[in-house]
Input
Amino acid sequence: MLAIKRLNRRACARKDKTMSNRGIFSALGDLFTTFGSAVAASRAVEAGRKPRADDLRNLGMDPAVFNRIGRF
Output
């Protein structure tokens, strides 16, 4: 009975470690997505074009509100 409990604890520990690795990779993916959207949006604005709506949403901006911003 004791051996079964130990095996169960090991399996749970492995499962927890796997889930934390997925969380780390997911966070890194989100970081690269956000950085890529920031670069794409800034280049579009510098070139005088409207950034893609997906890039603005990734940055937490509402595309409809961004469209109302005028030029100086």
About this structure: Helices lie at 2-46, 53-58, 63-67. The CA atoms of residues 5 and 11 lie 10 Å apart. The chain has three helices and no strands. The two ends are 75 Å apart (CA to CA).
